[in-house]
Design goal:
Elements: H1 2-21, E1 27-36, E2 39-42, E3 47-50, E4 55-59, E5 67-75, E6 80-84, E7 93-100, E8 104-109, E9 112-119, E10 139-140, E11 143-144, H2 157-164, E12 169-178, E13 183-198, E14 201-208, E15 213-214, E16 221-223, E17 242-255, E18 258-269, E19 273-280, E20 287-293, E21 298-306
């Protein structure tokens, strides 16, 4: 009898493992809404991935990268999803499965109901933008080659203040690429929000629509006074350590927000980060496009709206 019981338990264990490897939860799920405290909020497109064998991954969007966050298994008898993770409480603990089918998944965890729809991660392309110049292109030995280019910039701080009087926000689509993966890995929306703290103190701060918060936690101020009013500026971006103007208002670029004549500037930031700016010469403070290239990723900003 004891031997029969052991065989039965072993068979149940094998059946449970096989069931987990073919469980309907396996796949990519995009968070649509979260119900908590009597309110329903947008899931912001976050992604949960339940792989065969119990691996669990997550990402902030379908187009972005996903990362291992823990392990999962299901208790069919109790209709519970059991997650184990040391990274975040959202991926750790038991959740009561309320609905699961080919298209929808809902479970209740820590008093909140998470609603998902089944999705697929899009295939990435092998084409990425790159900036071909290097820091060596700005020097001949120890001599800096472009000392006069600060005088060629299209905007003074006074110009930016004047134009921004009628602007509330500049909205951009940001595409992120990985040089290592040779593919686009994410796409999201950021903006620069404009606020006058007083007549002579302007703040333009980058805002994340995904996080629903400012990226920098302090005002990006540039006070206007007798000393600063005629300064040639990159504001609201930072001035590169080294830069050169390669086109002076002669390059026309079209973005989702329109067509603009731009000054084009190439620069080096923080010793080895590269940047290319398309500065709209008759809209001081507005960039039509930006390419920023670091070691691990490349961001491409394209202007989609001026509010």
């Amino acid at each position: 009898m004891k031997k029969l019981t052991l065989i039965t338990l072993f068979l149940l264990f094998v059946i449970n493992i096989n069931a987990q490897d073919s469980h309907p939860i396996i796949g990519v799920w995009q968070l649509s809404t979260v119900e908590a405290d009597g309110e329903t909020v947008d899931g912001r497109g976050a992604v949960w991935i339940f792989n065969e064998g119990g691996e669990m991954k997550a990402g902030r969007s379908l187009t972005g990268p996903s990362f291992p966050v823990g392990e999962w298994k299901c208790d069919k008898t109790r209709k519970m999803l059991i997650m184990e993770s040391s990274m975040d409480k959202d991926f750790n603990g038991e959740a009561q499965v309320l609905k699961i089918n080919d298209k929808e998944l809902s479970y209740k965890k820590d008093g909140a109901v998470l609603n998902f729809v089944r999705a697929e991660k899009p295939k990435t392309t092998g084409e990425i933008p790159t900036l071909s110049f290097t820091s060596d292109d700005f020097y001949d030995g120890d001599d800096y080659l472009y000392p006069e280019d600060s005088e060629k910039l299209p905007w003074s701080l006074n110009d930016v203040y004047y134009y921004m009087k009628n602007v509330e926000e500049m909205v951009y689509r940001v595409d992120q690429y990985s040089p290592i993966q040779k593919a686009k890995t994410d796409s999201y929306k950021n903006s620069y929000k404009v606020k006058f703290l007083d007549d002579n103190t302007l703040s333009i701060r980058e805002y994340s629509y995904y996080q629903k918060d400012y990226i920098d936690m302090t005002d990006n101020e540039y006070p206007l006074n007798d000393k600063t009013s005629e300064e040639s500026v990159f504001y609201p971006r930072n001035k590169p350590d080294d830069f050169r103007v390669i086109n002076m208002g002669t390059e026309t670029i079209t973005t989702p927000s329109g067509t603009y004549d731009c000054y084009v500037i190439e620069g080096i930031e923080n010793m080895d980060e590269k940047v290319k700016y398309w500065m709209v010469y008759n809209k001081p403070g507005v960039y039509a496009k930006i390419i920023w290239e670091g070691f691990s990723y490349i961001n491409v900003y394209e202007l989609i709206e001026i509010k």
